[in-house]
Amino acid sequence: KAFYWYQKATENGNIDAQYALGTCYENGIGIGKDEASAFYWYHKAAENGNEDAQYALGTCYENGICVKKDQFEAFYWYQKSVENGNKDAQYALGTCYENGIGIGKDEAKAFYWYQKAAENGNINAQYALGTCYENGICVMMDQFEAFYWYQKAAENGSIDAQYTLGICYENGTGIKTDKDKAFYWYQNAAKNGSINAQYALGTCYENGTGIRKDEVKAFYWYQRAAENKSSNAQYALGTFYKNGIGIRKDEVEAFYWYQKAAENGNINAQYALENGSIDAQYTLGICYENGTGIEKNDNKAFYWYQKAAENGSINAQYALGTFYENGIGIEKDEVKAFEYFKKLAKQEYPNAQSKLSLFYKNGIGIKKDEAKAIYWYTRAINNENKNESIIEKDYNKAFEWINEVEEKECENATEWIKNALKNERVKLIPYEELINKVSLHAGGFGHITKSFWTKTNNYVVCKKLTNTTDIKHGLLDAFIHELKIHLYLDYSDRIIRCLGVSLDQKTNEYLFIMQYADGGDLQNYLKNNFKNLTWDNKKKLAFQIADGLNYLHNENVLHRDLHSKNIVIHENNAKITDFGISKIQNIQNSTVYIGNFGIVAYMEPKRILDPKFPYTKSSDIYSFGVLMWEISSGYPPFKEVDDKITLAISINTGIREATIPNTPYEYEKLYKKCWNQEPEQRPTVNEVLDEFEKMGFSINNKSIKESVKENNNITSKSQACDKSSEYIQSSDLSSNLCINIEH
Q: How does strand 498-504 pair with strand 509-515?
């Protein structure tokens, strides 16, 4: 209605209405935003003498709003507006004279117009007048007068003036020093968004300036300012992390913020990076090498290993040797690699001694010398090199063992499937019995479909392995690995069961056939049903997962990738699925992918920065604790965190999700025990089940069919685990499969 009546008024020649109509178009009041129309009506009203429109027209010309930038035209309209008494235009005219906008620079006239506007109540002019008096711009320097105008502007809401007033009170500029008032004004400005004030407030809390010393609050305000790109605050935050002030000590996070500050030109941060903790430099190298929470970058990994190595880190020196050996992040140089390994070998570094042995044996970076090869191999064994400890101490046979490892080839995976079917170790499901196929995902094996199995009158899930005749061994071996794990396991209601294998004779494509879950994965189930779940429902889901995990651990199987996409719901009951990277703990001749896998939020914290940290049953318990929290909240952990390196570092330093209000105490207490930072302090799965029994949930013997083996699809464990290997695959059927097989 306002727009309507302004429009009507303009039709009658009302000048003020012309200006008002311009503001409506500019701000979208009663009509869609239209800068061109806004300019038109400002111009109309300005020509008719409206001072506010003249000022608005000046800003249009100065900033190029719906008209080509024209500083001279901007100055002209500011001047016209001033002649008609507009105080905002007086301030604008001052900035024109100060900065030479549309007129030659003239500080005296700038001061004059700032003073006129300030006296008329313009807060920006009041602040500008304060800076003139403080710095002696076209007026004798006068700190008291400067303080007066800063105070006027601050009281009228100028954020810059509030921060500056804090400085005046802290340093006694134009007023008696008063730390309490300095804190007061910093706090006002900080809460209003001043980045400089946020940093200053951090220093107040850190040093107890005008407020009781509080390192936690100091950390908070440094963090606020750092996130707003204050290089000083970023450096301060790095120092807090480095020394454990107001936060748990974290060298990696310290380096992260030093790096941010250095990029923004902070000299102290640049020095700290170059001369900082060798452990942090080495750890940063690991992060970049493995892509742990940060984009993988071999060049940066090399740089930080080199920095740590120069500062004396023997681990970094070894890493540099491997980089030169393999040409990672630097041009391949086997001679330099040899020199690094030789230097470390003399310092009794076992891995380097083992490397040196191989270099001498194969003539890598040095002339072949079998005697020296055997000598260093012997030294490595004597130093109990973990990689060599399983070797019998027969040095004449040592190189025979090495050659066996190097020459060993992959088992022909296709032949394994054929033999397994021929010997009835795996059930063959006729392809023609699978009808009404519906595509679900395009996964690492090929296509994931839902099919109807006519023989059982039930839906099943099919993982179709495509192009088996030409495919790499790694992908096919991964297919077999998961099949072997299923064959190893007895039947349990708490896991998704393998039903067998099918083969499309027309295309020569294998299909892995599994039970179908009607409720989808746990993550989506919670998303769609959470509001209807009672606490008994939530406890039941958590208990069922623990029950399934108990079954796996009793069979000495480590799942190693428990998260809400690998738990599925069938008839409102939870089942564990996806054993692509599971490991049979007591199979000593199998090998494990060395590195990180899975989703960071659910991962064993100790493995986040140390991929060699052993994965044990307690690691599954940690993941289960995170799942318990997710069931209590209805959404995945740390869902708002996009920065993986920050998340990885936070978890590794003990940060966890906050407890959801109204969570039963005994439930909260249990999942916090499960996600304890230290593996040895976590409960076993049996202890977890004991706690659920206290909550009223216990194992129903009918739900677990012990040692049930069906001749048509299950075989003995000794057969199933023959020549078993571990593989990396995606934890989600819809994700791509990554394979790394070691033999």
A: antiparallel
Residues 578-588 have a mean pLDDT of: 64
Q: Do 558 and 436 belong together in one domain?
A: no
Residue 127, domain extent = 2-194
d(CA 46, CA 469): 80
Residue 474: CB partners within 8 Å, gap ≥ 6?
727, 739, 740, 741
Query: Poorest-confidence range of 10-24, 165-179, 376-390, 480-494?
Result: 376-390
Largest CA distance in the chain: 110
| Torsion, Cα of 308, 309, 313, 314 (10° steps) | 150
How confident is the model over 500-536, as pLDDT tens digits? 899 888 888 888 899 999 999 999 999 999 999 999 9
User: Is 370 domain-assigned?
Assistant: no
What distance, in Å, lies between the first and last C-alpha atoms of the chain?
79
pLDDT of residue 30 exceeding 90 = no
Q: Are strands 434-443 and 557-558 parallel, antiparallel or unpaired?
A: unpaired
Judge whether 137 and 106 are in contact, CB under 8 Å: no
| Length reported for the chain | 743
For residue 273, the SS3 value is helix
Identify the CA nearest to 328 among candidates 366, 368, 301. Answer: 301
**E strand or H helix at 300:** helix 298-310
Give residue 150's region: left, alpha or beta (phi > 0; psi -120 to 50).
alpha
pLDDT digit string, tens, across residues 318-334: 999 999 999 999 999 99
Percent of the chain with pLDDT over 70: 81
Q: Does residue 126 share a domain with residue 91?
A: yes
Residue 183 lies in a domain: yes
Using CA atoms, how far residue 16 sits from 27, 48, 78, 146, 395, in Å, is: 17, 9, 18, 37, 101
**Number of compact structural domains in the chain:** 3
pTM of the model: 0.44
515, 531, 547 - which closes a domain? 515
Residues 6+ apart with CB under 8 A from 705: 490, 491, 492, 493
Whether residue 551 lies inside any domain: the answer is yes
In a domain? residue 24: yes
